[in-house]
């Protein structure tokens, strides 16, 4: 919580929207930054909420229903799914791949962490946090401007030890730093 998921999603959505892409966002939680309807409308972004408290319980209903509703109502080019921190993205990806969705192309999974507060030792990670780091494609230490360089370096070394295949991209989503690199890493530009 507070890692910058919503801010990052909004920055990504705006960049794609600015070049004519139609963006859908499916969101489970609201954090410090909310998806303000007027701003989303101006950006040409359509939002759907996951109503169920437990995303794992609702995958077969809420996510597929929201994707289908977005497709029928809005025909988005891209759909971002933002979940709360305890959800395992690899599970969502596996479930989405089994769903009967036409023309579904999966982008790399992104895990965003708060560079100032994320634990520096793998042994200190909660199980779900470790799995998120192990199974993601891109790890974004966010708010790197608030963490000293030694901490950031140790954090990135830990990520490399846990998941040597993941790209690691420093960000300050609030300022937009690292968003261009993230878009390039997604392969959607």
From TrEMBL:
Gene Ontology cellular-component terms listed: cytoplasm
PANTHER family reported in the protein's UniProt record: COBW DOMAIN-CONTAINING PROTEIN (PTHR13748:SF62), COBW-RELATED (PTHR13748)
Natural source organism: Methanomethylovorans hollandica (strain DSM 15978 / NBRC 107637 / DMS1)
The name this protein goes by in its record: Putative GTPase, G3E family
UniProt cross-references to Pfam families, sorted A to Z: cobW
Organism lineage string: Archaea, Methanobacteriati, Methanobacteriota, Stenosarchaea group, Methanomicrobia
Domain annotation CobW/HypB/UreG nucleotide-binding: ranges: 1-169
């Amino acid at each position: 919580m507070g890692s910058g998921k919503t801010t990052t999603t909004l920055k990504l959505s705006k960049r794609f929207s600015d070049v004519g892409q139609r963006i859908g966002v499916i969101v489970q939680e609201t954090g410090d930054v909310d998806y303000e309807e007027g701003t989303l409308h101006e950006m040409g972004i359509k939002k759907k909420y996951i109503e169920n408290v437990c995303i794992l319980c609702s995958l077969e209903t809420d996510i597929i229903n929201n994707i289908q509703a977005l497709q029928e109502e809005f025909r988005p080019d891209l759909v971002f799914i933002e979940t709360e921190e305890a959800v395992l993205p690899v599970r969502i990806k596996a479930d989405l791949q089994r769903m009967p969705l036409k023309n579904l192309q999966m982008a790399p999974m992104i895990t965003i962490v708060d560079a100032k507060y994320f634990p520096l030792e793998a042994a200190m990670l909660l199980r779900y946090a470790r799995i998120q780091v192990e199974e993601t494609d891109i790890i974004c230490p966010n708010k790197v401007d608030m963490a000293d360089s030694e901490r950031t370096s140790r954090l990135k070394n830990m990520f490399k030890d846990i998941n040597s295949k993941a790209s690691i991209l420093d960000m300050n989503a609030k300022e937009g730093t690292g968003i261009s690199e993230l878009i390039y890493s997604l392969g959607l530009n």
